[in-house]
Amino acid sequence: MKIYRYPEKKTWPDLVQRPVFEREEISGLITEIFEAVGKGGDQALIEFNKKFDKAVTQQITVSETELANAENEISEDLKKAIQQAKENISKFHASQIVETQKIETIKGVTCWRENRAIEKVGIYIPGGTAPLFSTVLMLAVPANLAGCREIILCTPPDSSGNINPAILFTAKLCGITKIFKTGGAQAVAAMALGTESIPKVYKIFGPGNQYVVAAKEYAQRYGVAIDMPAGPSEVLVIADSKAVPEFCAADLLSQAEHGSDSQVVFMTTDFKIFTETIEAVEKQIKKLPRNEMAGQALDHSLFILVNSIDEALKFSNLYAPEHLILALEDFDEYVPMIENAGSVFLGNYSCESAGDYASGTNHTLPTNAYAKNYSGVSLDSFVKKITFQHLSKEGLKKIGKTIEIMAEAEGLIAHKNAVSIRLK
Amino acid sequence: MKIYRYPEKKTWPDLVQRPVFEREEISGLITEIFEAVGKGGDQALIEFNKKFDKAVTQQITVSETELANAENEISEDLKKAIQQAKENISKFHASQIVETQKIETIKGVTCWRENRAIEKVGIYIPGGTAPLFSTVLMLAVPANLAGCREIILCTPPDSSGNINPAILFTAKLCGITKIFKTGGAQAVAAMALGTESIPKVYKIFGPGNQYVVAAKEYAQRYGVAIDMPAGPSEVLVIADSKAVPEFCAADLLSQAEHGSDSQVVFMTTDFKIFTETIEAVEKQIKKLPRNEMAGQALDHSLFILVNSIDEALKFSNLYAPEHLILALEDFDEYVPMIENAGSVFLGNYSCESAGDYASGTNHTLPTNAYAKNYSGVSLDSFVKKITFQHLSKEGLKKIGKTIEIMAEAEGLIAHKNAVSIRLK
User: Fold this and answer.
1) d(CA A287, CA A292)
2) Which of A199, A415, B300, B398 has its CA 20 to 30 A from that of B348?
3) CA distance A284 to A291
4) Eight-class DSSP state of A380
5) Do the strands B109-117 and B383-391 form a parallel or antiparallel pair, or are they unpaired?
6) Best residue of B226, B282, B350 to probe chain A, by most A CBs closer than 10 Å
7) Which helix (H) or strand (E) segment is A416 a member of?
8) Residue A166: helix, strand or coil by DSSP?
């Protein structure tokens, strides 16, 4: 833990720094993987499964049988929980559908926007220590609501060549039937380039390690869009004297357990809450199965005593955290001050895990200070908004002169002619 | 002109190909420019002005006097036209403001989104053959509506070291007072890195040549966002037997005059309209001051006879044009078929120039088939949508079990604890 008592404002820019990753180092490898997948297709993916995931896979497509069996391999309780979460996520994301509103900017000139789903989207779900079926919900639910016609999912197999049944169950529940056993940069390459089995998609979503992140960035040169740039997960908790140290500690640790690079920041105005939260963290961490990872994350975490909640909010806006928890009695007062954050949790009972899993909000959020210029994933991420306009002859008459004068001033006479010829 | 009569569907993927630009070629130069601007700041920009724009500039900041004088250097008619366009653009973009809607996903669990402006944005306006003051409107109006606190503008000086007065007038009208005389990749570098005079911004908007495009792409590694990837401008016109060949020709030419790399596509079911439109193009182009550029664009334009309007729409969806004009009597019938397009113009009186300048829609649109996965610039481009949630104790009780089960199944016990400790 790094402890700061009332740090001066001039030190803040240093305190909000995120870890720097050397992108150049792996860029050669990413290029090689894209070339191999581009040339070798499915066969290259099967070889990468062997090389990187120690998995023997005869074919990369998950079979109907595997998909059907998954349902029997997980508990009823888990199924119910996933269904409940799906309902809440659906409800919140459905509320983001905006009705078309036609605007007559001047008489006879009508403009509006209509949503169209991105036709083909790819979801990447990492393997590794935690089977992130919750991320399947967070990406597949809005993709379906938006009306994406082709939704595919790539995730690495375990060493026996299988996919975690909770991932398969959730995918099926969300209507995804094209699931492929491939992970890492090669999965991203496959979705960007297409193979015999895997269709080329227009946008790639989902978290991953630095290879996946670099591959998503690289994929953009093939015309593919990505959800957002990525970095390690983050939480910033602001607590007042009415906060509960045990709750704050639990929230900080739920961020810390994600990985040794997780970013954890705690700020309070209250010395008692400060020390008791630190004590609670030390106590709670001992019982965690992932306590080694969490401990490493805590080593570089920031615990900051501040003069006022206002000051904490200003620091938070500079930091731009992925998750911001306001463990404040009068949180309503501070909401308008929030400028940069991915998702905000208000009050003592709004733990980050609620949004991570089941409250309804999306957990795919901007990290690494990208909350300054990016939004988290929402229904909007799966659509394009196309503008439409209709001008009547009268409408063009009304606006024609304006267009002609402006076009001429820009030296674009054909633009002017397109009006003049119609009004002649 | 490339003329195709009823091309088979299997040939379409070739027909929709866009020109390929070699990005690797200029990447060394872009890196050098970023390094020079990073080290040299304003002085480097002054030197680049001399080197690339043959302009002597003592300082890069446009002075109050220059800004005030601009008003006297342009005609009253042009001022009025710019003001009229600004009103329409404001009206349409203001209609995109969505009110916050709080959703109770289950009792005691309330989720919503709030917009926050991106604090600092930079607008790039190219110099060159046309002074694009219309693009100032298209970017500054929504930036202001969104509430961006710092809106800066960079544009290259002419060889006398001045900025076109229409650009200055429009910028001032839109409340932009920080204007800098710098262009090309160096302007992008300055906005991404910051200099003594130019503040570092969080998002960069605006068109430009391949150096600007490459620099915007490169800028992203400094954490800056950009409006969208870019390519040459495009129009696809679909006409039926009731279309007016002279109007279609004028629209095609208003695209062609943008530059020799402009993409122009004309499709019709009617042989008479087909030949007469070609004739009208040949006739109209002769009178254009930019006829050499337009002629080069026409050399690689596509004129395609198709069997049905349905077929034309399918081709258009595969092409994903920046601008789509439906010169069709029953255009309403075909709107639902449109899947991929930047902005759509309906009927015989909705010329592209209307949207380019004054109807109210934005003219910063996805090109190069990016209409498959990107929207044009709108109010959304200048805000982040932050999610908020509040859970009451009762709300957490209702949803707690679901979170605990899911967290445990993902192996994230600290996530589970954050709920359990609150419900104990």
Assistant:
1) 11
2) B300
3) 9
4) G
5) antiparallel
6) B350
7) helix A413-423
8) helix
Helix (H, G, I), strand (E, B) or coil at A387: strand
Mean pLDDT of chain A: 96
- Contact check, Cβ <8 Å, B419/A88: no
Positions of E strands within A253-375: 263-268, 302-305, 323-327, 343-346
Q: What is the pLDDT of residues B204-213, one digit of tens each?
A: 999 998 899 9
Q: Is A223 on the interface with B (CB under 8 A)?
A: yes
| Residue A363 to residue A376: CA distance in whole angstroms | 8
What letter would DSSP give residue A221?
G
B401 contacts in A (CB within 8 Å)?
A: 81
Query: What's the pLDDT tens digit per position in B35-50?
Result: 999 999 999 999 999 9
Q: Is the pLDDT of residue B129 over 70?
A: no
Q: Is A55 helix (H, G, I), strand (E, B) or coil?
A: coil
A209 is in an annotated binding site: yes
Contact B337, B313 (CB under 8 A): yes
Local confidence band at A140 (pLDDT 50, 70, 90 cut-offs)? very high
Q: Has the ipTM of the complex gone over 0.95?
A: yes
Class of domain B2-19+232-360: alpha beta
In the CATH scheme, what architecture does the domain A23-226 have? 3-Layer(aba) Sandwich (3.40)
Of A88, A356, A422, the CB nearest to B247: A422
Tell me what the mean pLDDT of segment A327-354 comes to.
Answer: 98
Distance CA B50, CA B161 (A): 9
B323 is catalytic: yes
Residue A148 has phi, psi (to 5 degrees) of -60, 130
Per-position DSSP letters for A335-360, written without gaps between them: GGG--S-SEEEESTT--HHHHHHTSS
Q: What's the first-to-final CA gap in chain B, in angstroms?
A: 76
A390 and B113 in contact by Cβ < 8 A?
Answer: no
Domain with CATH 3.40.50.1980 in chain B: 2-19+232-360, 23-226
> Long-range contacts of range B73-77, CB-CB < 8 Å, 24 or more positions apart?
B73/B165, B73/B169, B74/A409, B74/B165, B74/B166, B74/B169, B77/A405
Q: Tokens representing B330?
A: 């029953």
With CB atoms and an 8 Å threshold, state whether A417 touches B345: no
Is B270 exposed, middle or buried (CB count within 10 Å of its CB: 0-12, 13-18, 19+)?
middle
In this prediction, residue A219 carries a pLDDT of 96
Give the pLDDT score at A129. Answer: 66
Question: For residues B158 and B55, what is the distance between their CA atoms, to the nearest angstrom?
Answer: 6
Q: How many beta carbons lie within 10 A of that of residue B66, not counting itself?
A: 15
pLDDT of residue A206: 97
Among A253, A373, A403, the residue with its CB nearest the CB of B384 is: A373
A246 is in an annotated binding site: no
Nearest to A166 among B132, B385, B409 (CB): B409
Q: So what's the pLDDT on residue B142?
A: 98
Q: Write down the pLDDT at residue A389.
A: 98
The pair of structure tokens assigned to B124 is 């790039």
Q: Return the closest-CA partner of residue A351 out of B12, B390, B149.
A: B390
* Shortest Cα distance, chain A CAs vs residue B283, angstroms: 12
What's the confidence (pLDDT) of residue B290?
Answer: 87
Supply the pTM of this predicted model: 0.96
Q: A135 and chain B: CB distance < 8 Å anywhere?
A: no
Residues forming a β-bridge with A343: A323, B387
CA B152, CA B123: separation in Å to the nearest integer? 6
The answer to whether B159 faces chain A, any CB pair under 8 Å, is no
